[in-house]
Design brief:
2 domains, mainly alpha, single chain, 78% helix
Length: 427
Amino acid sequence: MTLLSNLLEQIWFQFVLVGLLGYLSGLEYREYLLEKDRAFRFGTARTYGFIALLGYVLIHLDSGYRLYLGGMLALIAWTSLFYLHKLRQGQSGILGLLIALLVYTFGPITRHLPLWFLVLEFVSIVFILNARPLTLRLTETIDRQELMTLAKFLLLAAVILPLMPDEAVIPYLPTTPFRIWVAVVAISAISYLGYILQRYVFPHRGYLLTGLLGGLYSSTATTLVLARKTRETPGAADSLNLAIIAATGMMYLRLLLLILILNPAFLAPTVLPFLVLGLGSIGYCLFRIHSHATAQPPGAEAVSRNPLELGTAFLFAALFLLMLLLSKLVLHHYGSLGLQVLSFLVGFTDIDPFVLSLLKGNYPSAGLDTLAAAIVIAAGSNNLLKALYAWLAGDRRHNRGAIAGLVVLGIVTLGVGAGMAWRVGRH
């Protein structure tokens, strides 16, 4: 390791590396031009190698950066004249000029930053030059409004979140504004991952994959969509029923992921039942499909709304606050039994705000096992809700398997949660 560190600090090695990466950058740009069949180009691969070496030499000759800045001004003047001539030829691309300026910065990087950053800049140049097909595909498929929504969400997550106070500012609220928004960011990010995978990464997926990815987004919404599909395509009812069960199996894994991110202390009492129920459900669906050896028809569009919409995020935050206050009041007046009853009732709504309120709230009167049991009970009653949705929205003659599976999962999950609560009561 010492030998490698000494080598990286040698001037001759940095000089060779800068020139080589500059040459390779120019070579990659030349290949890009050949693919686009453009004859009008800014220099050759050797030109970019020399530009990189020039920047390295000038930055080391003058510690005041005057020579280097003078060279940069000369390079900008030269590239500006070239660009004016290019405009007269009916071309307006400035990619070659930008690469020349980036290559010119290779020298200062070796002086002020680690060499891995130099390699990172080179890799970025190569990646962006080869990203044109991906850019065209994204332009054709992604809704522009979704990019705007993502930008707004990143603003709230990266700018406003650090400004949130991590101390109690609202009386009787068992958490802080920072923890509230962390929970909103976490659930939105996981849902968005499922949304992107489902809508863009796997556009030609089978029903089972639709169920798995939809469960990462929202198992309830996925159940509704797939149940309705049984009315339209009764011949695919077996695949649709398995997809509905797989979506619920993914719900258990999604809850475990939330616990891991927000409060790993809850893993001890929940990891075994959630893993067994989640992986067991998914494994059962995979086995059934494999044993029947049937081709998977294209899946349904399980979600059509971007989960990062700001209105959805603020509504979730409001529900989160409501569940925090409600859980604290119930615990204060009715104790652990009241919380278990509340968790059962909440399961017939959206359980995410309730689960996150238990993970991020501060409830001195309730132990961790009591709160974990409430999470499990809520998941169980939510399965009963999905069974009801499947019965109401689907073709009851063809989706009996999904209804029965959801009822079984609901009863088993409720039994596990009740057992956890009973053990807590005994102690």
